[in-house]
Amino acid sequence: MKWKDVPTRSISVGGVPFAYRELGPDSGVPVIFLHHLMAVLDDWDPHVIDGIAKQRRVIAFDNRGVGASGGSVPDTVEEMGRDAIAFIRALGLKKVDLLGFSLGGGVAQMVALQAPDLVRRMILAGTGPRGGGGIEKITRVAVMAYLKAALTLSDARNFLFFPRTPDGKRAARAYFARLKERTTNRDTPISLQARRAQLKAIRAAGLSAPDDLSVITQPVFVANGDRDLMVDSSHSADMARRLPNAKLTIYPNSGHGGVFQYHEAFVTEVLDFLAD
C-alpha cells in the first residue's frame, strides 16, 4: 500500500476524536509525524512517507482542532505538545521516534521536554528553537506569501517552501504533483480558528525565553534548506549546537521545504539515522 491509499482512522483522546493514518511494518519503534503550519494529513509529501515506511511504521495525525480531528487548536506549542503526548499514549505506544517539520518541529521539542521517556530519537526539519530571533515575524512572511499566491492564483508554499530559481520552481511543481496523488477520502481543510491559533502559538514561541535544550539527550537529526524564509537555517544550526547529541544537514539552494526538494537524500539520511 502507498500513502495515497492509506485509510484515515480515528481514536478518542480524552473524548476528542483524533484523525490519523499509518503505514509500514508493525514491528519496531514507530515514527510519529508532526506537520507544519496550516497543514493537514494530505500535506505530507507522499515520497517522504512512502520512503520511510518501507522500513519503519509511520503514523501521521491531525493534532487537536486540525483537519478532521475534533476540538480547537490551542494557542501555545506547550499545549500542542501535551495533545501530541496524549495521542501517542492513547495508541498504547511506550516509545516513539518523532519527525517534526516546521511548527511540528517545535511541537516535537515540547514532546521531548515534557515526556522524555516517550522519545527514542527525533528528526527536526525546517524548524528552530523557541526564543529564536526572527521566528516571531513568521506572520508577516506568511501574509506576503499568501498575497503573492492570490495574485498569481497559486499555492503560497511556492514562495514559502522553495526558492524562485529554476531548480526551486521545478522542485515546487514536482512537490505539488505528489500532493495531488491522493484523490479520494482526503482530509478536512484547515479551519480559520486553527490558522489563527497556530500563528499565535508560533509568535509566542518566537518571543518566549529559550528552552534548555541540553536536557534533550536523545539523538536528534536537524535538517533545513540554506535559503529558508520562514526559519532561517542559522536557527537550525543554533538548535543543533544546543542539543547535546545532534547532527545537522543543510541542503543547498533550497528553502523551508528543502527536505521535500531533496526528498530522496532526506529519506536515506532519516532511515540511516533511525537505524543507527
TrEMBL record:
GO molecular function ontology, one term from the record: hydrolase activity
Q: Where is the AB hydrolase-1 domain?
A: 30-259
Q: Does the keyword Hydrolase apply?
A: yes
* Pfam families (alphabetical): Abhydrolase_1
Keywords of the record, alphabetical order, are: Hydrolase
Nucleotidyltransferase as a keyword of this entry, yes or no, is: no
Q: Which InterPro entries match?
A: AB_hydrolase, AB_hydrolase_1, AB_hydrolase_fold
PANTHER family (alphabetical): AB HYDROLASE-1 DOMAIN-CONTAINING PROTEIN, HYDROLASE, ALPHA/BETA FOLD FAMILY PROTEIN
Protein name as catalogued: Alpha/beta hydrolase
Source species: Oleomonas cavernae
